[in-house]
Design brief:
The protein is mainly alpha-helical. The chain is built from 15 helices and 2 strands. The termini are far apart.
Length: 310
């Protein structure tokens, strides 16, 4: 019986972990039920605590998620991949709660620990990108306190430029890390001096090519194509974004209200494209009909040579 219970537990842990990462957050409700069941018998199960933390992150319950990750990192004395990842995720929660100084210190510690880990390029890239995001959240130029405005300005720091450097460092660790391209695109479109919309667009395209789940990059691309009235390209971006969420396969589930799409804008964009296409079709045939009617009137005109009464 003990063996059977252990097998069942291992199966549930594997199933719940898979559901957490399969087109998140589509299956999170089911995953959370299994996670809670395992944790009720094994409160310190690392995989389940991590999984529960990820689920809470997607619902933006940052404080509760941070607590889950803290339990993982505090439960083990030695530094393992799980504890390092837990520290990273805890720091990311701190960023989201605007506890930026502490988050930056923790992310720098994580980056140092990852230097001793093999096959950790993706983890390093994600940590450097998150460090950049922490600096980005600090905003633009900040003056040094307790100094006169003129002197303070001489020592001021533009945290967005610091973020920009870290986004590039993330790509040096892994050239296929899509979120870094998205963040660089935002930098070029919002913070660069001068602004560089062309380079920003290239960054968004690269991010979207690498990962269709980069919703921010996809939305900005679609908006740009819509402004240029490139409706075919808007449709391509919208459909690929929807597919990236695994939503085309279960579109009836969305219609029935079983779950909500992450990128609602993509469904709206797809609807607009179809509406534009329908209107274009309608206008085309309305004009064609008008020309036919005009021709018919001309032939029916009694003054037209060879005309007979219509």
């Amino acid at each position: 019986m003990t063996v059977l219970l252990s097998v069942k537990k291992a199966f549930n842990v594997a199933l719940a972990t898979s559901l957490v990462h399969l087109y998140p957050p589509k299956h999170h409700t089911r995953a959370l039920r299994i996670l809670e069941e395992v944790l009720s018998d094994d409160p310190n199960n690392v995989d389940c605590l991590m999984g529960r933390g990820y689920v809470l992150q997607r619902t933006e319950k940052w404080l509760e998620a941070a607590s889950c990750f803290s339990r993982v990192s505090d439960a083990r004395l030695e530094e393992t991949r799980d504890t390092i990842r837990a520290q990273e995720e805890h720091a990311w929660c701190e960023v989201q709660m605007n506890h930026l100084d502490g988050a930056i210190a923790e992310l720098r510690t994580v980056i140092e620990l990852l230097e001793n880990q093999d096959d950790s390029d993706e983890d390093k890239a994600r940590s450097w990108w998150r460090l950049g995001r922490a600096y980005w959240e600090m905003g633009g130029e900040r003056l040094v306190p307790n100094l006169s405005p003129h002197i303070s300005k001489l020592f001021s720091v533009d945290h967005r430029e610091e973020a920009y450097k870290h986004f590039f460092t993330a790509l040096k660790q892994s050239s296929s890390f899509a979120p870094a391209f998205t963040s660089l695109g935002i930098y070029y479109s919002e913070a660069a001096n001068p602004l560089d919309p062309i380079r920003a667009s290239k960054c968004f395209q690269k991010a979207f090519e690498l990962d269709a789940r980069e919703g921010d990059a996809a939305r900005r691309l679609a908006e740009g194509f819509a402004e240029e009235r490139e409706w075919d390209l808007v449709e391509v971006v919208a459909n690929r974004t929807i597919e990236g969420e695994g939503e085309h396969e279960e579109s009836q589930g969305i219609i029935a209200g079983r779950y909500l799409p992450v990128n609602a804008w993509a469904w709206k964009a797809s609807g607009v494209v179809h509406l534009v296409g329908f209107l274009s079709f309608t206008v085309h045939y309305a004009r064609l009909t008008a020309r036919v009617e005009q021709t018919k009137i001309s032939f029916c005109d009694p003054g037209f040579p060879g005309s007979t009464a219509c």
